Amino acid sequence: MTRVLHVVVAGAVGGAERVVVDLARRPAETRAEHAVALVTPAPALVAFFRDAGVPLDVLARRREGPLSDLAVHLGAAARDFIVACARRHRATVLHLHTFGSHAAGARAAAALGVPFVRTEHSTRVYRDPSCWPLSRGSLARAAAVVAVSEHVRRVAARRARRAVLVVRNGVDTAHFAPRPFPSGEARFAVVGRLDRRKGVDRAIAAAARVPGCGLDVVGDGPARARLETLARRLDVGARFHGYLADPRPVVAAARAVVAAAREEALSVALLEGMALGRPAVAMPVGGIPEIVREGVSGLLAARSDVDALAERLREAAADRPGLERLGASARRFVETEASIETMCRGYAEVYDRVTRDRALPTR
What we know:
Helix content: 40-55%
Distance between the termini: 28 Å
CATH superfamily of the largest domain: Glycogen Phosphorylase B
Strand order of the largest sheet: 3-2-1-4-5-6-7
Strand content: 15-25%
CATH class of the largest domain: Alpha Beta
Shape: globular
CATH architecture of the largest domain: 3-Layer(aba) Sandwich
Radius of gyration: 20 Å
Order of helices and strands: EHHEHEHHEHEHHEHEEHEHEHEHEHEHHH
Low-confidence stretches: 359-363
Number of helices: 17
């Protein structure tokens, strides 16, 4: 059986880390055994992986900051740590998930003589000039490059000039089973990290233009205090729940899940809400239109701006029966096109090919 070591460099629990756990807990479906090498000892991440029962090694870093981050990319400590982890777990494939893992992971794979896979969870490294010089070197050497959406694939293939596969993130439809549709006031859920990129400020501004529209915000991050102030100033009935290991009760109490990101590869939070039987109300950004299909899995704003989102929220607040029908359709969409079984089969094929062929075509 293939033995995969996932290399993670991150500061918080996000979509990439949840994908790692979903893969690691399904050895039969992925035809692989999994372990994680965590290069950033963030307490929340350590707890997340350990609570999931994933074999985990953590590199203790003495300090955090730009110089320490640069040392991960260019220094020997992170590379040697990954090499030691791979040998301990007898890894036959390295799987790199985040920008911080690209350089060190590629150098570790070269030292080990094993292939590595890159999953592009966003377009950040292709757009941010501070990331590209440190990330580009591993692209040509990767045995496979995988994108989580067609949108990411197009951006990556254009910049990387090589073949990029698509394996869409999937949702555990048994865990995120449908819940009874809520009655009462028109409340909507927003789930994600509270930073500028996720656009929670735009969701709050749109909700402020819809009388009686309330928001339940699940997540934490550097913008939380500013967002709470904005919600009070705009007199939006917003409840901030912070990070929740299990967001299902909050999402199930909402009529729909709202997405107003400025940049989004593919929202796992939206897919989870849709699996619960809640449609999405979203701006047409990045890979969102691939999963939020008008009249099938949700309501898609005509433009990526507050006015357009407010218009769709207004429709949603006024049509509870219509939203309930959309929610049932959204659930069917996830079952057929975004299940965790489909995702695991996709990665199983990638792992099989890179261990058999050592490399996929680069053109």
